[in-house]
Amino acid sequence: MSCELDPETLIEALYGEASPATLERVRRHVSACPACREEWQSLTGVRRQLSAWKLPAASRPRLGFVARAQLWRLAAAAALLLAVFIGLGLSRARVGYGPGGLALSFGRPEADVEQQLQEQERRHALQLAALEDRLGRQPLPARAAVAVQDEAGSLEPVRRLIRESELRQARRVELVLAEQRERLENQRRYDLARISAGLSYLDGKNGQHMARTSELMGYLLQASDQR
Amino acid sequence: MGPSDEELVAAFQRGELDAFDTLILRWDGKIRGAIYRILGSEDEARDLCQEAFLRAYRALPGFKGQARFSSWLYQIALNLCRDRMRRRRGRVFVSLDDADQPGHQKVDPGPSTLDLVESQDLSRAVADAIADLPEEQRVVIVLKEYQDLTFLEISETLDVPLSTVKTRLYRGLTQLRESLERRGVRGAAVVPAPTA
Q1: CA angle A221-A225-A227, nearest 5°?
Q2: Of the candidates A8, A37, A50, which has its C-beta nearest B166's C-beta?
Q3: Percent of chain A topping pLDDT 90
Q4: B45, A13: Cβ pair inside 8 Å?
Q5: Which of residues 104-123 of B touch A (CB under 8 A)?
Q6: Which residues of chain B lie closer than 8 angstroms to A52, CB-CB?
Q7: pLDDT tens digits, one per residue of B129-164
Q8: Contacts of residue A12 in chain B, CB cutoff 8 Å?
Q9: Among all residues of chain A, which has the CA nearest to that of B188?
Q10: What average pLDDT does the structure give for chain B?
Q11: What whole-number distance in Å separates Cα of residue A135 and Cα of residue A128?
């Protein structure tokens, strides 16, 4: 810059840290001076280009960085493993562990499967025979006694529960009966009282009727005597 | 609004060590970004950022508050960067890009800025251009352009006069312009004059 505008002032204005008065001075000068205007525009353009430099994945979560940096390596490893598995599958390879250790074999597996099934069948037959033998050696009466004991032992709680239940039922019936008896007694007393009151009323009516009859009879007797 | 840096520092110095966790969370990204832009290596940025915080943790009990905590932390990080760059100087770097050769002028006008942005080459070109700057200019540009520090804060962090900060920044920008042009990044956008 070969101008009156010094670089420090230009930089202050460029980054917005100049005072308003200085900024106004720079603005007027840049408008009038083609060289300084070009410099201003050029530096602003450089700043704009600087903003294009973004931080890489280092400032982002680690996972993203790993994914990007090792993606090809992981993909290659996965592809290799996939190819190996496909190849083994097509060749009908089998990996097994036998008496001789780990073994890898290729080809049709039907014969081996049949042999394994037969061995398994023999093993199961032996186990069943051993189980039957063990059960068969135990004497029947002993087994029956054990069964009876087991049954008695297991029935006793049930019986106890039934007894308790029956007692509860009996107590409940007793309570209900006592209540009914009391109610009947009250009803009887009430009915007796009403019968007694009714009889008294009848007694009263009859007495008055007889008194009047006697009085009339007296009148008739007196009249007949006067005749 | 959480506690200020100075309040967290005071809490740490009273024995509340958890306060340092908050300072790490607050400044880790900025410090790591600054180191990365100065050194250009993600691994080094991560390592040196951890080292910077470790040193800060050890030195914080004796921190007297003469400067802002952020300036002090940037000082630690920049010192680590300088040590690392000093060690690097013994090595020889060979660039496969002939545009890196000093004085090389491309005859081909090259792609436009827009094309470069689209292909992310501009980002790479800027990173390379900044890496070629002298250390003093590079540090000032990183602190100003990417860390948003004020001139005063940069002056405080680097312990240099304000005028030195501005001069370094101006020289750095002009060198970057030339360096980017050599890398085929042409044509600064036409921008209006400053407004009051």
Answers
A1: 120
A2: A8
A3: 7
A4: no
A5: 113, 116-117, 122-123
A6: 116-117, 122-123, 126
A7: 999 999 999 999 999 999 989 999 999 999 999 999
A8: 151, 166
A9: A45
A10: 82
A11: 11
All residues at 6 or more sequence positions from A150 whose CB lies less than 8 Å from its CB, including other chains: none
Mean pLDDT of chain A: 75
Q: Confirm or reject contact between B173 and chain A (CB < 8 A).
A: yes
- Whether A90 and B67 have beta carbons less than 8 Å apart is answered as no
**Per-residue pLDDT tens digits for B15-38:** 998 899 899 989 999 999 999 999
Q: Are B70 and B28 in contact (CB under 8 A)?
A: no
Beta bridge partners of A98: A101
Both tokens assigned to A22:
């200085």
Q: Given B29, B146, B190, which is nearest A41 (Cβ)?
A: B190
pLDDT tens, position by position, A183-194:
787 767 666 766
CB contact at 8 A, B19 and B12: yes
Which residue in B has a C-alpha nearest to residue A36's C-alpha? B193
User: Quick check: helix, strand or coil at residue A191?
Assistant: helix
A57 touches chain B (CB under 8 A): yes
Question: Going by C-beta distance under 8 Å and a sequence separation of 6 or more, which residues neighbour residue A72?
Answer: none
How many CB atoms lie under 10 A from the CB of residue B179? Answer: 22
Residues in B closer than 8 angstroms to A32, CB to CB, are none
- State the burial class of residue B57 (Cβ atoms within 10 Å of its Cβ: 0-12, 13-18, 19+): middle
Binary contact (B193, A55; C-beta < 8 A): no
ipTM score assigned to the predicted complex:
0.72
One-character DSSP codes across A202-226: HHHHHHHHHHHHHHHHHHHHHHHHH
A/B interface, count of CB pairs below 8 Å: 107
- The angle subtended at Cα A116 by Cα A113 and Cα A120, nearest 5°, is 140
Q: How far apart are the first and last CA of chain A?
A: 181
Helix (H, G, I), strand (E, B) or coil at B64: coil
By C-alpha distance, the chain B residue nearest A37 is B193
What three-state secondary structure class fits A105? strand
Give the E-state strand segments of A62-189 in sequence order.
94-98, 101-105
Q: How far apart are CA B164 and CA B39, in angstroms?
A: 22
Q: Is the pLDDT of residue A59 over 90?
A: no
